[in-house]
């Protein structure tokens, strides 16, 4: 956050969940079955999987993931970075029309 508690605008991040699954339960079951070495990262993966819907997924913000997992922003960002490195998430550039960096992450499950 910037001064005065205002949200930072220099780095906008969102998470997109694949829409290939009929209900979020399928994605959650997949996330729970994965061997993720870091418990904080696994919790993030499960929280992201829980956001998926039959209508096309969702895009929770980093702050929403923090709220859902009870983790701070740095832990969530590090967890997402680790999940990308290990192949659980795919990082894509987002076109938001806003200044600054914006990325979306898609769960990579089969």
Structure description:
By secondary structure, the protein is an alpha+beta fold. The chain is 39% helix and 14% strand. It has 4 helices and 3 strands, in the order βααααββ. The chain has helices at residues 24-33, 39-50, 62-69, 73-85; strands at 11-13, 89-93, 101-107. A 3-stranded mixed beta sheet has the order 1-3-2. α1 runs antiparallel to α2 and α2 (39-50) crosses α4 (73-85). Mean pLDDT is 74; it is low at 1-14 and 17-23.
Quick synopsis:
By secondary structure, this protein is an alpha+beta fold.
Supply the key terms:
110 residues, alpha+beta, three-stranded mixed β-sheet, 39% helix, globular, disordered N terminus
Number of strands: 3
- How many helices? 4
State the strand order across the main sheet: 1-3-2
Strand content: 5-15%
Low-confidence stretches: 1-14, 17-23
What is the general shape?
globular
Q: Which value, in Å, is the CA radius of gyration? A: 14 Å
Global mean pLDDT: 74
Largest sheet: 3 strands, mixed
Classification by helices and strands: alpha+beta
- Give the ordered list of helices and strands: EHHHHEE
Distance between the termini: 36 Å
Q: In which range does the helix fraction lie?
A: 25-40%
């Amino acid at each position: 956050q910037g001064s005065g508690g205002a949200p930072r605008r220099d780095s906008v991040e969102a998470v997109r969940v694949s829409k290939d699954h009929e209900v979020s339960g399928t994605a959650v079951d997949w996330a729970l079955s994965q061997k993720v070495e870091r418990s904080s990262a696994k919790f993030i993966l499960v929280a992201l999987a829980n956001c998926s819907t039959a209508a096309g997924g969702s895009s929770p913000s980093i702050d929403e993931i923090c709220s859902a997992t009870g983790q701070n922003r740095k832990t969530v960002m590090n967890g997402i970075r680790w999940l990308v490195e290990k192949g659980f998430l795919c990082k894509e550039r987002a076109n938001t029309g806003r200044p600054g960096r914006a990325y979306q992450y898609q769960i990579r499950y089969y």
